């Protein structure tokens, strides 16, 4: 029920004007041009009317009061329609397409328009959209241009419009507009959903090649993960063994190097102690021995000379002693004998020095010749040479001197031999000591050289170990990059004491092969590929799910549209039957008999476009698609005592009565909360006005009636009269009169 209407700055209503509609029938009266029709347009405006033609304006600013001499133009126009909602009849549709009641006792629908043409809508002073206003009002079968607002022209319009438009008017009267609205909404959603399906399918087609490419990349990367896991295992085993090897080898190398350095230091000290070089004492001894040997030779030569002399003297003495001093004896000079003995001795010494026997014979011949010559010489000596005693004495004395000298020489020889032997013994001992030192020196030097070579070999090993350590560190870095940090985490307690370097080489070759595979696979960008693949796959799955949801929505929308259309068809068919009953009743009342009914027909746009000739070959595909049948309504009447059945053949009064009968029939079947009749009785005579008044009384029991009229008969049925007039300021004013109170005062 419409409780009141608040108008401010709208058209001719400059100031705020409030009309209360607390009675079943309210009549608005006034002279032409006073602004009473502006009240009806204010209701249309508040309910969301968008047609400027229906509001009798060219643009939104035309709806604002223009001002007068005494009144300035307002900054806006505003109309508020206040509805009673104690029974919670107003509702709106939530996102789940379910009706939700508006929990307010009073619903205030406000529309404001500003000079710039902007419109603002509010419900209970809360800004909302026009769509929300239409939805809330449609829940109680109220609209800006529905069957509940009927003007004189619109009353006749129900007879003059096409069958399809008449069907729409009937649907509106039956309150089926909400179904049409929901169907259109569902169809728009269906169209949008279909477009979304195409877009989603297009997006999936676009990302499909890239997703396929990424899938192959991911498959490769998954294989690289297998290699990576294997590489981690190989690396850990390799690192634990290599680390143990480097640690133990480094320690062992350091230990050996230290031992060699200590040994080399000791050998250097020993080398200093056993340094070889010329021994002065040996040289002195050698000189002394040489001198002693020379002395010995001299003494030996002297001894030999003395021995020879002594032998010769003894020989001479022996000869002199043995040879008697007889007459005729031959006397031999001792000096001659010495000369012979010396020459013989020289030849014998020469013979002794010769090794070949063949060379000794000539020497013996010479000796033999010397002896023969000596004998021949002696034979030639006179036998009468006497032996002198003095010579014998001299020989003995000489022999004694030579014997004494020889004894002294022999003592000297012994002394020299003893001294020489001592010197030789000391020299031998010295030489033996020097030889020992030399031997020790060479042995130490050899050992020192071996130690130095060993240190050089250790240096080579050390360089190799440093190279191995660097290679180990590089492998750790590469392992971190290619196999992750897990590959470099190992425990030395798991190491094996029997490190096989050949096994390490084989293992490193396996590692290198897997590294090459991983590098070829591009593991460095693996995380990005996985991330992109997951994003694209999630996007595709989301689109696939969205596609399923959209297709489900399409099916749901199609089902909803089908159900709405079925409901609309059933409601429409049933509603037409009920309207026909009321139409017949009202028609009979208005005309005193006759027949009236509505007939549901089906016509196609194709028949309209082809001019009814049925020539489909010249129609476009779009026109053929638009050839689906459309439902329309035809009006069938039969006036009493007349043959006229065509609506075009009716008089103005007959058309007015027929349209009123039909409009009232539609109103009774689905009574709106309020019904505005704007001079629908203008064409009625007095008799028909009474019939019209009787119908109004009946309708007031079903709906609240607001009547804009000049007809006194119609006014007589109202409980409250609002008189509209133009004041001296050029603005419309309202005067109200309650007829029951006026009658009491009049009586």
TrEMBL record:
Keyword terms, alphabetized: Coiled coil
One Pfam entry name: SMC_N
Domain (RecF/RecN/SMC N-terminal) ranges: 1-732
Coiled coil: 176-203
SUPFAM superfamilies: P-loop containing nucleoside triphosphate hydrolases
Region (Disordered): 610-629
UniProt KW Cell inner membrane keyword: no
UniProt KW Hydrolase keyword: no
Name of this chain's protein: RecF/RecN/SMC N-terminal domain-containing protein
